[in-house]
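Review the following:
>
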Amino acid sequence: MKQAVLGAVALAAALAGGAPSAVAQVRGIPVYNAGIPRGIGIYGDAGFPNDETGGGNAYGVTGRLGLGAFGATAMLSTYDPEGPSGSDVSVGATLNLRVFGGPLVPLAVTLQGGVGYAKPDDQLLPDGGLAEVSELHFPVGAGFALTIPNPSLAIKPWLAPRLDIVRRSPEGLEDETDTEFGLSGGIELNLLNGLGVHASYDALFVDGGNPGVFGVGAHYTFAVPGL
């Protein structure tokens, strides 16, 4: 019994030290909640997690669909943390609901719920073995976006607080769940032809640390009549 307890304690320490907070929806890319596009949007991103998140860099692609007050996204990323480990692939999706704002109202408020799935590096067990880990990420929150129109360029700053839930499942062992407060924000610069660029930062507020991810990218929105 004593050995089992010590083993469980060691495993918990190994998991805590080897699996930094997820921060992002898909690994290495900030959680994005800048409102619902009018049509279909394609976003490409590069993410740069800080050292407390694992360092390294990530690349992701996101498809966004706006249907009036409703929206949905699908995401794919590859994340290469610092160190000898290779790249991790993760996928994710969100559902979005605009509760305030519209074409003639510059301020938009959007509720968002999402899920991300990844399989980070295996975790070291107390006996020296490895446990395969599956990770589910559930960001749930609201986004506040303000569109500032100009003759040829629309500027959209946004801010999105959320509840950030991460559930890790080591193979054959007890699951663990972390719930933190997260905050992401950024800015979009959009041309009238649908082309734009964006930058964002995502942070978690945890005891004794400040995991965060900075992201930059470009996007294109295809206007669809009637949407």
